[in-house]
Write a structure and sequence with these properties.
The complex is a heterodimer of chains A (about 400) and B (about 230). In chain A, strands 2-3-8-5-7-6 form a six-stranded mixed β-barrel. In chain A, a hairpin with a 2-residue loop joins strand 2 (about 110-125) and strand 3. Chain A contains 14 helices and ten strands. In chain A, helix 2 (about 25-60) runs antiparallel to helix 13 (about 375-400), helix 3 runs antiparallel to helix 9 and helix 10 packs across helix 12 (about 330-365). Chain A folds into two domains: about 5-60 and about 280-410, no CATH class; about 65-235, no CATH class. The relative contact order of chain A is 0.19. Chain A has about 400 residues and is an alpha+beta fold. In chain B, about 35% of the residues lie in helices and about 30% in strands. Chain B has one domain (about 30-55, about 80-225): Rossmann fold (3-Layer(aba) Sandwich). Chain B has a six-stranded mixed beta sheet with strand order 6-7-8-3-9-10, sandwiched between helices. Chain B has a four-stranded antiparallel beta sheet with strand order 2-1-4-5, with helices on one face. Chain B is globular, with a radius of gyration of 17 Å. Chain B has helices at about 45-50, 75-85, 100-110, 115-130, 145-155, 175-190, 200-205, and strands at about 1-15, 15-30, 35, 60-65, 65-70, 85-90, 160-165, 195-200, 210-215, 215-225. Classes of the chains: A alpha+beta (about 400), B alpha/beta (about 230). Chains A and B meet through helix 1, helix 11, helix 12 and helix 14 of A and helix 2 and helix 3 of B.
């Protein structure tokens, strides 16, 4: 057959299929329902999976760009989100910090040491507990934790060991429930007077919102007396150098301590890549799981299509006989029924794409969930629906094409 | 046009072999109007299936329009049917969801003829059977006689070698059946080769020649008196 004739056949097949589907609208909708739900759930569920990963990654970026932290003690939990280190003996020395500071700028952009204790804060007749963090002026940049009102303390404050404090938003709310401007006000911290210079931004994480920040020099002289740091915050030059940098620091700090391996060390290092990797791993597993569920529902949808196509072939046995008597070959009959199955599954798939978008939107609008519809999931789900139609329409179409015209014409 | 030589067709029915056709030889020339008659079980249907290329003989030769039609694949048979055979069935066998003109177009679709040409040919053929004004009607909206006319138009639209009619008046009342027979006679007069398969000797008398089958054999090939 020439290409022209094939095009004519294709067009005829589509027209015939549409007519036959239109003659059984209710049945067609029910048949395609499985595919609709399958495609819709693939898109909506993977949108939720992707959305969850994106929002967690955004929250991780919120911790500070390319953040790497050297902690005192032994690793425990997901170190990057844990800021309460007040119970652990500070183990990081001035030499440790000096070494990290000496690393070239294509590895380390800046560092900021910190130590902390539990503090009792008092203003007028109000009391609150907070983590008192002594650090330097690079801290807001490294930890992406900045004052929203007033200022952070200055290098001059650090130099002069002044009793100044930038307070977390929870501390502000506890001490100044009337919402007054606290700048310049003196509060008492473990009995010592400190002047408020700023209020830190809200991070939604109690470790930071219920903390206060004072110059490390002041911290050492007045509150701890130790010349060691609990933590060294590091901003690496890029995500790519993180693991290399981590290894360099581990090696040198172990050498300083004359220790053979990290198992015996009194410090450990956490970096953002670990966490992002973990989150991505979880998200991938999640997406795979959802994809599996969706694939099963598409399979069920496909079986629905096969079932209806078998019924359709049986119902139209006589029509098939007539068409064969008039000159339809097996493959004409085959393509006719395949076209019908594919139109059903493609139609169901298209509606499913709409349902998927609607579902993702609804989860965002009414459920407050982050949902990101990825074009890949739409393409994969729709493609899968088409393949389902071809595959499950294939058997009924084959059966139709193999009918004996004499038997088919005699069929009542 | 049609040459059957010693055609055999056997069926296995349980333990017994049914010799539906047991050495049939016959010919139909171009432009003839021939009836194939016989009671049920005579092998009439098998004969018609073989002439119509719906089935192949087990043995023997079948020449249709100079072409050997025995021992062909299903696809080749489909093509021969499409080109050479115009079927008219007792129960019309129109597609219920297609209009009259769409039904007439069907054989042309499988010939790969484009929509516009097809439509023109189908309309012309409907006009020839006297249904020009009914072309957009669905079969359900037509009377029995009109449906059979649509079926005849469909059989003729591809300009086949033979019009093969199987009890074409069987589902019609006497009057309408008479009209259809008149249409066959008229088409035959215009040069169409007609083979009429029927159990009704009365109807067979309308043909120029009747071939009678009994138990899978041709008993008489009666030359009826030539019509005026």
């Amino acid at each position: 057959m020439s290409t022209g004739a094939q095009l004519i056949m294709l067009w005829e097949n589509i027209a015939m299929s549409v007519r036959s589907i239109a003659a059984n609208k209710g049945r067609a909708v029910l048949t395609a329902l499985g595919v609709m739900i399958g495609v819709g759930s693939v898109i909506a569920l993977t949108a939720l999976g992707t959305g969850a990963a994106v929002s967690v990654e955004a929250r991780l970026g919120n911790l500070g760009a390319n953040l790497m932290i050297v902690y005192s003690g032994q690793p425990r939990g997901t170190a990057l989100v844990r800021t309460r280190t007040t119970n652990i003996a500070p183990a990081l020395t001035i030499d440790d910090l000096a070494f990290i500071d000496s690393l070239p700028p294509d590895l380390v952009v800046m560092t900021s040491p910190e130590s902390s204790i539990n503090g009792q804060l008092k203003f007028e007749n109000r009391n609150t507990a907070a983590t008192v963090i002594g650090t330097d002026t690079d801290y807001p940049e490294i930890r992406n934790f900045r004052p929203v009102f007033g200022d952070f303390f200055t290098p001059a404050d650090l130099e002069g060991r002044r009793n100044v404090v930038a307070i977390g938003v929870q501390v502000y709310r506890d001490l100044f429930p009337d919402g007054r401007d606290p700048l310049g006000t003196t509060i008492r911290m473990n009995g010592l007077p400190f002047t408020v210079v700023g209020i830190m931004e809200e991070k939604g994480n109690p470790g930071q919102d219920a903390s206060v920040l004072i110059p490390l020099t002041t911290f050492r002289r007045s509150l701890s007396g130790s010349d060691r740091y609990a933590i060294i915050n590091i901003q690496a030059a890029s995500p790519d150098v993180m693991y290399q940098l981590q290894e360099i620091i581990e090696t040198q700090l172990l050498a300083f301590r004359r220790l053979p391996s990290m198992e015996l060390a009194d410090f450990y290092i956490a970096n953002q890549m670990d966490l992002i990797g973990t989150v991505r791993g979880v998200a991938d597993t999640f997406t795979l799981l959802l994809g599996g569920i969706a694939a099963i529902s598409l399979l069920v949808g496909g079986i629905g299509i096969m079932n209806i196509m078998l019924v359709s072939v049986t119902e139209r046995t006589r029509e098939i006989g007539v068409r064969m008597a008039l000159g339809a070959k097996g493959r004409h009959v085959m393509t006719q029924f395949l076209t019908e199955a594919v139109i059903l599954s493609a139609g169901g798939g298209l509606i499913g794409v709409g349902l998927g978008y609607a579902g993702a939107w609804g989860a965002w609008r009414f459920g407050g969930l982050a949902a990101v519809v990825s074009p890949e999931s739409v393409l994969i789900a729709f493609g899968f629906a088409l393949v389902t139609g071809l595959f499950f329409g294939g058997y009924p179409a084959y059966r139709a094409s193999r009918l004996d015209p004499i038997e088919a014409l005699r069929y009542e | 046009m049609i040459h059957l030589t010693d055609v055999h067709k056997h069926y296995q029915m349980g333990p017994t072999v049914v010799r539906a056709l047991d050495g049939v030889s016959m010919s139909v020339d171009a432009g003839e109007f021939v009836a194939i008659v016989g009671p049920s079980g005579s092998g009439k249907s098998t004969m018609m299936n073989i002439i119509g290329c719906l089935d192949s003989p087990d043995a023997g030769s079948y020449l249709l329009a100079g072409e050997e039609a025995a021992e062909r694949s299903a696809d080749e048979l489909a093509e021969i049917r499409n080109r050479n055979i115009g079927f008219v069935f007792q129960s019309f066998n129109l597609l219920p969801r297609a209009s009259a003109v769409e039904n007439v177009e069907l054989p042309l679709i499988y010939r790969g003829i484009s929509g516009r040409v097809r439509r023109r040919m189908a309309e012309a053929m409907l006009e020839r059977v006297g249904l020009a004004d009914r072309s957009r009607h669905l079969p359900a909206e037509l009377s029995g006689g009109q449906r059979q006319r649509v079926a005849i138009a469909r059989a003729l639209v591809g300009n086949p070698s033979v019009l093969l009619a199987d009890e074409p008046t069987g589902a019609l009342d006497t009057h309408t059946g008479e009209e259809i027979m008149t249409l066959f006679e008229q088409l035959n007069a215009e040069g169409v080769t007609v083979v009429l398969v029927t159990h009704d000797p009365h109807l067979a008398r309308r043909a120029a020649r009747a071939i009678t089958l009994l138990d899978g054999r041709v008993t008489t090939a009666t030359a009826l008196e030539v019509r005026p």
